[in-house]
Amino acid sequence: MNHPKTLRLAAIAAACATLLAACGGGGDDGPKTVALEFAAVAGSTPVKCGTEVTSLGSGNVNAQVKDFRFYVSNVQMLKADGSKVALTLPANDDWNYTKDGQAITLVDLEDGTGSCSGGTAATNAVIRGTVPAGDYVGFEATMGVPFALNHTDTTSAPKPMDIAAMAWSWQAGRKFAKIEVTDPQGATGTWLSKTFNVHLGSTGCTGNPASGQTVSCTAANRMAFRLGSFDPAVQKVAVDLRALLASNDITVNQAGATGCMSGGTDPECLGVFSALAIDWKADGTGTGQPVNGGQSQTLFRAVAK
Amino acid sequence: MAAAAAAVLVAACGGGGSTVVDTGTAQAGGWTWTLPAGFPVPKVPDDNPMSAAKVELGRHLFYDQRLSGNGTQACAGCHRQSRAFTDGRAVAVGSTGEAHPRNAQHLSNAAYHATITWANPSLVTLERQAETPLFGEQPVEMGVNDGNRDAVLQRLRDDPAYPARFAAAYPGEPSPIHWTNVIKALAAFQRTLISGNSLYDRWLQGRATLTPAQERGKNLFFGERAECFHCHGSFNFNDQIVHAASRIVETPFHNTGLYNIDGKGGFPEPNRGVFELTARAADMGMFRAPSLRNVEVTAPYFHDGTATTLEEVVRIYAAGGRHITSGPFAGDGRASPLKSDLITLIQLDGQEQADLVEFLKTLTDHEFLSDPRHADPFAAR
After folding, report:
1. Quick one: which of A216, A119, A117 has its CA closest to A164?
2. Structural domain ending residue among the three candidates B166, B194, B222
3. Of A25-39, A147-161, B212-226, which gets the smallest average pLDDT?
4. Within a domain: residue B247?
5. Residue B11 to residue A167: CA distance in whole angstroms
6. What does the alpha-carbon distance between residue B231 and residue B290 come to, in Å, rounded to a whole number?
7. A259: chain B residues, CB-CB within 8 Å
């Protein structure tokens, strides 16, 4: 009577051992939950809608944040030996979507109040997911929407690609990031150009009239970033508005779209793309690819919670 | 050589002044196209088949001001039937009063455009194009956004007629009033805006005669010297065509020497053509050749509405580009290094220019401009 049961237990134990070994586990059991928290800052000061942000841009001026949203895709957790394991997102919901191995989360750090009135009340500051048990030392990810999901139509796309404000309809895609600041005095203020927009997205996109699909873009403009030493238990990801805007006078628009809307020759994009570590050249020949894997980016960094 | 090609083209179109070609019909699912002679069957996306109910829904939506965020502007606000669905303005003005940088295009035969709008290789269906005027923020056109898009749909749900119209257009859908279906209906309606019954078409079919001036203008248009037909030579008088049987579709864009603000062929922002999307130097000032169907009623002309009359347009092309002598955009477009090699000094005298204009006016389809099938359904109320 006991014999088959014993065998079965032994088989299960063996399977478990195999599973743990395959996952590189050292005694932990089951998958592990990871929560990557993002926080909007200017230097070391928290940024929020309706509260003046100090000392932004090359002129060190004060501003109100107007929007602060971006897509993060394909988070990979890093191990000490340099190997990578994909973070598995929860079931598709308002903020997360996974399909065919592509995982995307909308990080929304604006709450629709004050100067962010064009935004939404709902916010999402955390990318939560699971990885197999093990020790992880950091993570890397992409700010952007993967090509396969980027050029879907906004009105029928699944959440979170259905946000009208994040549509990038002139290139049949999405804004990967929509980060905007505006003159704190509004119409009575002294900014020559009232708003400085940072809209990141793919440019030079071409469709195929015979298929109706977008087939390629000359500049992908997806930002790679890597926090090689990051402990989600005690650290969060600072998203630094001051670093993003550091080299531009945000009160004027030299040429092109107001601020930088990823235009290949828009002078404001020089400083913005430098902060994002995406290849950009003033003559329009930038490749839109990460420079050295995004090592020199200054937008994201690890800070204590 | 070119004259021979033009003769062949005319013959291929069933014309030559001797043969009457009956209006053709073509089946597409449950929909029957009624097409002018020489017109191919339009391409229709697999996920948006044509139906009479959908077209009729689209017509209502196209003319309905409630479709804008603030309820003040319909698609038809910038696309008026009497002007072949453009608006007579130099540049369009949106529902919040914001000026668009570009001239509103006419919609005659929009079903056949391989790319949509003035200079955008990424917009290849009317469905995708519709997202820009509906939801665009720079500039605001219809002004639908995340804050009001449900409220706009609710206006349609609360209407006594729309629920039944949506149900008829999208049978089997339990909740058919949503934005994807709004856009599909708008696109289906636009695909029916087919214009091919102008004096020129009737002449091709042997049902009308051209005046001597129109005839001379036609010969210039299709001839080696004026070379208009290189960019405006298809049945739709442009050079970007997609239709149901298309396999390989060319999407040429052209710099016609309208500006040269820097001596290097530069166009003024934010109207630098395909360059705005690609930032490639070679794309500066590159625009899609518009269809010349109904061109008589689509003034003002060019992407930025800076030519008031057809006479002015012909004068500019006769000179091989536009020389702007003063103002912020001063520069000699004739000398632009980026100008198409098809735009050269063509030495047309005043009579010849007038003849060309006379021919262009034969492309007006007066039936199209007042066809009740395309008209404002709310006007009679």
Report:
1. A119
2. B194
3. A25-39
4. yes
5. 47
6. 9
7. none
Tell how strand A235-240 and strand A32-42 pair up. Answer: parallel
Q: How many domains does chain B have?
A: 3
Judged against a pLDDT cut of 90, whether residue A164 lies above it is answered with yes
Contact A246, A58 (CB under 8 A): yes
A240 SS3 class: strand
Distance set, CA B41 to CA B12, B21, B202, B245 (Å): 17, 16, 20, 8
Q: Same structural domain for residues B142 and B262?
A: no
The pLDDT tens digits of the residues spanning B175-204 come to: 999 999 999 999 999 999 999 999 999 999
Instruction: Tell me the domain boundaries of chain A.
Output: 1-26, 31-304
Query: Residue A135 contacts by C-beta under 8 Å, 6 or more apart in sequence?
Result: A26, A79, A80
Cα dihedral value A164, A165, A169, A175, nearest 10: -130
- What pLDDT is recorded for position A215? 87
Q: Check residue B176 and give its pLDDT.
A: 98
The confidence score (pLDDT) of residue B27 equals: 56
- Cα(B296)–Cα(B319) distance, rounded to whole angstroms? 21
Pair B217, B329 in one domain: yes
Interchain CB distance below 8 Å, A169 and B135: yes
Region B216-224: mean pLDDT is: 95
Residue A90 has pLDDT above 50, yes or no: yes
Same-domain pairing of B74 and B170: yes
Quote the pLDDT of residue B347.
86
Instruction: Judge whether B371 lies within some domain.
Output: no
- The residue among B168, B194, B220 that closes a domain is B194
pLDDT of residue A1: 38
Nearest to A203 among B128, B147, B278 (CB): B278
| Contacts for B57 with CB less than 8 Å, ≥ 6 apart | B162, B165, B166, B168, B169, B185, B189
Residues B120 and B224 in one domain: no
| Surface of B (5-34) touching A: CB under 8 A | none
Q: Among residues 280-299 of chain A, which lie with CB inside 8 Å of chain B?
A: 283-284, 286
Residue B346's pLDDT is: 87
Considering chain A, what is the average pLDDT of its residues? 91
A190: how many CB neighbours lie within 10 A of its CB? 8
Tokens found for residue B166: 């949506």
Range of the domain at B24: 2-30
Size of interface A-B (CB pairs under 8 A): 113
Q: Which of A164, A170, A283 sits opposite B120 (nearest CB)?
A: A170
Q: Residue A21's pLDDT is what?
A: 40
As a whole number of angstroms, the distance between CA A244 and CA A43 comes to 10
C-alpha separations of A266 from A68, A203, A258 in Å: 21, 12, 9
Q: How far apart are CA B216 and CA B225, in angstroms?
A: 13
Per-residue pLDDT, averaged over B50-66, amounts to: 97
State the Cα–Cα distance between residues A173 and A155, nearest whole angstrom: 12
Q: Is residue B24 domain-shared with residue B46, that is, in the same domain? A: no
Task: Report how far residue A200's alpha carbon sits from residue B28's, in angstroms, rounded to the nearest whole number.
Answer: 41
Q: Is residue B264 part of a domain?
A: yes
Residues of chain A in contact with residue B266, where contact means CB-CB under 8 angstroms, are none
φ/ψ of residue B169, rounded to 5: -80, -30
Q: Report the DSSP beta bridge partners of residue A105.
A: A72, A96
Residue that the structure tokens 């340099």 belong to:
A82
Rounded to the nearest angstrom, the gap between the alpha carbon of residue B57 and the centroid of all alpha carbons in its chain is: 22
Chain centroid offset of residue A291 CA: 17
CATH number of the domain that B150 lies in? Answer: 1.10.760.10
Q: What is the pLDDT of residue B2?
A: 39
- Six-digit token string for A240: 């630094």
Rg (CA), chain A: 22
Residue B19 lies in a domain: yes
The pLDDT value given to residue A6:
42
